[in-house]
Amino acid sequence: MTVLYALATSFLWGLADFGGGLLTRRMPALTVVVVSQTLAVAVLGAIVVATGGWSEAGPRLWFAAAAGVVGPAAMLCFYRALALGPMGVVSPLGALGGVVVPLGVGLMLGERPGLLQFAGIAVAVAGVVLASGPQAGGAPVARQTLVLTLVAAFGFGSVMALIAAASHTLTGLFLALFVQRVCNVAVGGTALYASVRRGNPALPEGGARVVRAALPTLAFVGLADVAANGTYNLAAHSGPVTVAAVLASLYPVVTALAARGFLNERLRVVQAAGAGLALVGTVLLASR
Cα angle at 95 between 74 and 138, to 5 degrees? Predict the structure, then answer.
């Protein structure tokens, strides 16, 4: 089940990133984050009330709150790095963070994958990097861009580790995800307010009408991201975190394939090779 939950995580995160990428072409990124996460909060709040999730409140919710603060901060660093430096370098380095931090946590907790699974980790990590489309040559990466990228990568990986620690029951997981999203909205809303104070628009051209028309897609992005966090928690608790972390980080493959299928974007040779390696790595990780 670890493999299935982790692959579901990659699928959901990949589609959420694809949808979010489309939306940010039409409206400010912070607006996309705040609105999509607010819709997710509304749905999660209803689920928590319906399932009696409030009874699961406890010290573990601090992990969820920390994930809710770290996640938006990491995303803002990532967006800033993408604006300053070459996307073909920033993207794969950012994706690696989701592998390295949870993988390190799993190894520190005493997990020791078998030989085939170690090979699968190496192959799958290579697939993640290549599927993100790294570029060779070009302009050197500035120190600020590299620092921002590494901070974002560490943040992404930390969110995965924190979510895994936030709850061990299903109703508790709903509550943890609700708390995480409330913190996401608080941090994102503060950043959006600061951006508006600096003179940047909160609404796209066309105003609130454009946002209203995009509400179904915004809801999908927010709920897919929430569901991905949930399936990752289940993956991390049903088997080795080392396996769950690597398979859950294959989402760049899904995003690239979605762009190919829906937007007719051609995969670069390096991305196609990455998708193939990711598939091989998945088979090895699923072995015993």
Answer: 100
**Mind listing the pLDDT tens digit for each residue in 112-157?**
767 777 787 788 777 766 766 655 555 455 677 778 878 888 888 8
Tokens found for residue 65: 């709150």
Q: What is the DSSP letter of 202?
A: S
What whole-number distance in Å separates Cα of residue 221 and Cα of residue 237? 25
Helix (H) or strand (E) holding 176: helix 170-197
Those residues of the chain that have pLDDT short of 50 are 139
What interhelical angle do 29-51 and 2-23 show, nearest 10? 140
Task: Considering only CA atoms, give the Rg of the chain.
Answer: 18
Phi (first) and psi of residue 204, to 5 degrees:
-75, 175
Contact 165, 60 (CB under 8 A): yes
Burial class (CB in 10 A: 0-12, 13-18, 19+), 288: exposed
Two tokens, residue 266: 């051609």
Residue 209: other Cβ atoms inside 10 A? 10
What pLDDT shows up at residue 89? 61
User: What is the Cα–Cα distance from 277 to 254, expressed in whole angstroms?
Assistant: 13
Strands (E), 11-60: none
Listed residue (84, 237, 96) closest to 155, CA to CA: 96
In Å, how far are 15, 237, 282 from 164, measured between CA atoms?
Answer: 21, 7, 21
If you search the block for the tokens 């399932």, which residue do you land on? 51
**Distance separating alpha carbons of residues 41 and 180, to the nearest angstrom:** 9
Which of 136, 148, 176, 147 is CA-nearest to residue 54?
A: 176
DSSP 268: P
C-alpha to C-alpha distance for 138 and 101, rounded to whole angstroms: 29
Tokens 């909160």 sit on residue? 202
